[in-house]
Write a structure and sequence with these properties.
Order of helices and strands: HHHHHEEEEHEEEHEEEHH
Largest sheet: 5 strands, antiparallel
Number of strands: 10
Strand content: 15-25%
């Protein structure tokens, strides 16, 4: 114990070597704390990523949150180590806060996109491969990153939307449900047998195996027009068959009506010749009359 007490007393003395040794020991202890804190922060961040992966979260979201948590924990460790070394951390924290505020204001748009990207990955209003309409653009979702959402349109154009715009606009997901209802509007002439036309349409719909039996198809008279009747046809199909069934039903209805002699509503265009103005008519009659007196 005498040797230990002498060593401690010597370290607290004003001897230059003692002072250097004390500083070296503090630095070594701080580095040890930094190493231990870094390993703990990494393990906690990796554990969070594994938990998110098991819950089915997006891998990109897991990596992002892992990096954020690791950076925050490591910052706490660094501040604690500096405080252990005797460095005043109050001014350092104030400087870091001011710098963070300045950076946040400068990157406000980018940070809003990142925040919106995190929300999209957490709540998942759509997934990759689904057909959506957002921001006035319709297409298939190709990728959702932290900053942007990538859509592929039907004519093979890639549209990149900022996540802040995607999250703030209405999102129409055409693939969210397994079934969809087709809405067809058929206009018949005023002289046609509406019941016969509806019977022919029902036969066409029932003959198509892609049309679902439940919910049942609705075929109703939805309105009257100046040229006749409007019939609404509302069959239910699988979401993947929507476009093909809609096109095939329209073509089949047209062919069936032609074979049955049922005519669709015709719009008549009447062209009337423009009447000449009164002044122009009088002038032309005056010039063509040989008996008209000449002006002096």
């Amino acid at each position: 114990m005498d040797y230990l007490e002498r060593a401690v007393a010597w370290l607290h003395s004003d001897h230059p070597l003692a002072i250097a040794t004390e500083v070296a020991l503090k630095i070594a202890f701080a580095l040890l704390l930094l190493l231990i804190g870094w390993r703990i922060a990494r393990r906690l961040a990796d554990g969070l990523r594994r938990v998110l992966s098991r819950t089915g979260a997006d891998p990109l979201l897991g990596d992002f949150l892992r990096n954020v948590v690791f950076a925050l924990l490591l910052s706490v460790v660094v501040v604690g180590v500096l405080d252990r070394l005797g460095v005043p951390t109050a001014s350092l924290l104030a400087a870091l806060g001011a710098a963070g505020l300045a950076i946040g204001l400068a990157l406000q748009a980018s940070l809003s996109n990142i925040a919106a990207g995190v929300l999209l990955m957490v709540f998942r209003p759509f997934r990759v491969g689904q057909s959506v309409e957002v921001g006035g653009v319709s297409g298939t979702v190709q990728n959702v990153s932290l900053m942007h959402t990538h859509l592929l349109t039907a004519d093979n154009r890639e549209v990149i939307l900022p996540n802040s715009k995607v999250a703030s606009d209405a999102i129409v997901n055409a693939s969210a449900r397994t079934t969809r209802r087709i809405e067809l509007g058929i206009e018949l002439g005023a002289q046609e047998d509406v019941r016969l036309a509806m019977s022919e349409i029902r036969a066409i719909v029932e003959a198509d195996p892609r049309v679902l039996k439940q919910p049942a198809t609705e075929i109703v008279v939805s309105g009257l027009t100046e040229n006749g009747f409007r019939v609404a046809v509302r069959p239910w199909v699988q979401s993947g068959d929507f476009g093909a069934v809609q096109s095939d039903l329209l073509l089949a209805i047209r062919q069936r009506f032609e074979a049955a002699g049922i005519r669709l509503a015709q719009r008549e265009l009447v062209f009337r010749p423009a009447l000449p103005a009164a002044g122009a008519a009088q002038s032309s009659s005056h010039l063509s009359d040989p008996q008209a007196p000449a002006r002096e």
